Amino acid sequence: MEILNIKKMPPSRILLLFFLVAIFIGSFLLMLPGATTAGNEISYLTSLFTITSAIAVTGLTVVDVSKVFTPMGKSIILIFIQLGGLGIMSFSSLVFLLIGKRITYHERKILKEDLNAESTGEVTDLIKRIIMMVFTIEFIGAIFLTLGFLRRMPLKRAVIYGVFHSVSAFCNAGFSLFSDSLEGYSQNVIINMSVAFLIILGGIGFAVINSSIMYITTSKKRFNLTSKMALFISIILTLVGMGLFLLLEYRNPKTIGEMNLFYKIIASFFQSVTTRTAGFNSVPMGDLTPGTIFLFCILMFIGASPGSTGGGIKTTTFGVIAFYVVGIVRGREDIEVSNRRLSWEILNRALAILVISVAYVSTIILLMLVFDDLGFAETIFEVVSAFGTVGLSMGVTPEMNQFSKVLITITMLIGRLGPLTFALALGEQKQRHARRYPKENILIG
Amino acid sequence: MEILNIKKMPPSRILLLFFLVAIFIGSFLLMLPGATTAGNEISYLTSLFTITSAIAVTGLTVVDVSKVFTPMGKSIILIFIQLGGLGIMSFSSLVFLLIGKRITYHERKILKEDLNAESTGEVTDLIKRIIMMVFTIEFIGAIFLTLGFLRRMPLKRAVIYGVFHSVSAFCNAGFSLFSDSLEGYSQNVIINMSVAFLIILGGIGFAVINSSIMYITTSKKRFNLTSKMALFISIILTLVGMGLFLLLEYRNPKTIGEMNLFYKIIASFFQSVTTRTAGFNSVPMGDLTPGTIFLFCILMFIGASPGSTGGGIKTTTFGVIAFYVVGIVRGREDIEVSNRRLSWEILNRALAILVISVAYVSTIILLMLVFDDLGFAETIFEVVSAFGTVGLSMGVTPEMNQFSKVLITITMLIGRLGPLTFALALGEQKQRHARRYPKENILIG
Ligand SMILES: [K+]
Ligand SMILES: [K+]
């Protein structure tokens, strides 16, 4: 059983195995009689789809979560969201810490890769800090959201809704207890802003939050390059997304056309933030203009920052490639960012992530277009949303046939593991041929 | 006038300048009173669009070429197709040869880049061989096509149609003298096969044809790596495209659904060959299934082989990246193709071409979706078709607003110059900073 020998496994395979085990357990938990409401029994495929969506913090659903699941079912989903959001690795390290077992070098190596920490020594410390940070932020978020919900519901319900949406937002999961996501709250400033800030904090990555805290509390006044790049690209993408959304939907009566300018701007900001990976929506997706659909596909594909709860190819991957292209145009030999130069190895990994992601997404889109009948734009949107673990949909998720549901389930999982795992595979598994072949040139372009 | 000093210009800029001058002259020629039929006067933008489409061998048209232009107008278009197909550089070298002027090293360098010849010494010889080859193939093609057309029209007209379609097919231009391209001949085997073989010969690249002739006529029994890769990828793409088209459209009554199996296969073969860059169609594009639309976008984007009359990012660029990805999956350190390894520099150029092309195409699609109203799939299809100099359209070309027409005109030109020019720029213009910045790592994926 060579392939089941954990000690010898490449970390990327261990990560995959943990996800598979968690999905397997979760899919049966969600099938328990007490998890669904009367008359709403679900098929195993639906359960599998829902729990994968939860642990991959995607948020796509084939059934209406608010109606189909009991409080118990919703709690299971919430737990798996939290599990996925924290990263199974950091969660399992918590278990290790709790039972007092020292983390071995091998375990630490796995953790390190899930969290993108820079040196092995910091891992234990980092995990503690992450757990603290996550619960602190989610707690504060829950208070604000509870206050927001109190206007329309009694205290107990407002607290439950506050906690659920705080965790779901910070983990960039996009699950909501409302059938229409947050469309009913598109003009509620406190809900919009709380959710947006939870998403931003969850999606910016622990490295940036950590650097920020260090910046404020200690004398270490230097952001590392990853943090700078993540912040820079996140801000640019948020502003560009917000501006284009406002422009494209300004006169669309089905989305923000009939709001006043203030709420138009709030809704545009909210939708720009949430589209990159969180997946809540305050305006209906099926009614967007074609330009917005295309814009959203690009934003969903890029996604959040590394070491965060979000998906996509990551802001830093996009940033490295963008700086490279700018460098080409300016005739530079090095890739220069903020008075530093990047190695070609980093560029090659970034390009490999991009190429493999594009190839994978294109293949799944083609398969779904061939074997299902959901429409051209709808299919592209759905697949990119699943791959970026975003969870937005033009409304076709429940209409998919079984083949498409299986493809989307796999895509959510690969989207969660994917680019990172590929990056690792690139960094680790290279093996030189015993005999190298002679070199030959080839004409391209 | 530093920027107009030809001797100091980078070759890529000279290439651009020649195209611009040719387009400028052609756009006025096409405005001459004798070029258009009575009552069908065209605007300058239409003239500019049409002549750019001709010289970039794209074939997109905002008016019905068969009805709007007189024999003189059609001749102008044909001449510009031939000019574009041969490459303005090889054409200008012909002029040099005819007037007995020796080609200077500087001129040869330009030619070399347009033709992708491997060493400067071969250029003069190569140009002669290209001209010979092109006219020989077009002559033979014209004979077959004339025979095909004779069944439905008198001799004189059949000859004119034969010559026009032979040149247009070999140059992968996609211009047709029929309003519905070759839809009326979807069940005519001789026309289909002649056009398909002209397209294949025109799109496989002179290097491959040259190697093949050497293989047959001399003792030099070795294909170089470029030829092998171009042939291998072309065959794979043709077969995959043919198979998927057959599968996707098998039951579509608006395309091949009502043909018998033999003609279904002929039409699938023809459409697979023509989609990668030629742009003729024997079935209506607007009626394709969404899966076929997506498949065609991928095929159009990849395009033909280098040193050919076709466009796209090129089969070899796609091939280098594909072999790289396969190598990653198999854990190899080198990129290995046919017992040879490729340099990382080649891979970087291929990836740069891909990334810049994707970024450019996405930007144009987004702009057209924002400022025009042609539909999601229609816009993506149109832009990819223009960039790949394919010329297929879902029927929206004449409905575009002025802004879109300008964007598509620019995109046809960039598509013709683009990947090649980028490849050159990458190889040539790199300049090292006086002071290199210190290196820093960044987390991606
Ligand atoms: K999500
Ligand atoms: K063409």
TrEMBL record, chains A, B:
<feature type="transmembrane region" description="Helical">
    <location>
        <begin position="158"/>
        <end position="178"/>
    </location>
</feature>
<dbReference type="InterPro" id="IPR003445">
    <property type="entry name" value="Cat_transpt"/>
</dbReference>
<dbReference type="InterPro" id="IPR004772">
    <property type="entry name" value="TrkH"/>
</dbReference>
<dbReference type="Pfam" id="PF02386">
    <property type="entry name" value="TrkH"/>
</dbReference>
<feature type="transmembrane region" description="Helical">
    <location>
        <begin position="12"/>
        <end position="32"/>
    </location>
</feature>
<feature type="transmembrane region" description="Helical">
    <location>
        <begin position="130"/>
        <end position="151"/>
    </location>
</feature>
<feature type="transmembrane region" description="Helical">
    <location>
        <begin position="75"/>
        <end position="99"/>
    </location>
</feature>
<keyword id="KW-0406">Ion transport</keyword>
<feature type="transmembrane region" description="Helical">
    <location>
        <begin position="285"/>
        <end position="305"/>
    </location>
</feature>
<dbReference type="GO" id="GO:0005886">
    <property type="term" value="C:plasma membrane"/>
</dbReference>
<keyword id="KW-0472">Membrane</keyword>
<feature type="transmembrane region" description="Helical">
    <location>
        <begin position="190"/>
        <end position="217"/>
    </location>
</feature>
<feature type="transmembrane region" description="Helical">
    <location>
        <begin position="229"/>
        <end position="248"/>
    </location>
</feature>
<feature type="transmembrane region" description="Helical">
    <location>
        <begin position="350"/>
        <end position="371"/>
    </location>
</feature>
<keyword id="KW-0630">Potassium</keyword>
<protein>
    <submittedName>
        <fullName>Potassium transporter KtrB</fullName>
    </submittedName>
</protein>
<feature type="transmembrane region" description="Helical">
    <location>
        <begin position="406"/>
        <end position="426"/>
    </location>
</feature>
<keyword id="KW-0812">Transmembrane</keyword>
<keyword id="KW-0633">Potassium transport</keyword>
<keyword id="KW-0813">Transport</keyword>
<dbReference type="GO" id="GO:0015379">
    <property type="term" value="F:potassium:chloride symporter activity"/>
</dbReference>
<keyword id="KW-1133">Transmembrane helix</keyword>
<feature type="transmembrane region" description="Helical">
    <location>
        <begin position="44"/>
        <end position="63"/>
    </location>
</feature>
<keyword id="KW-1003">Cell membrane</keyword>
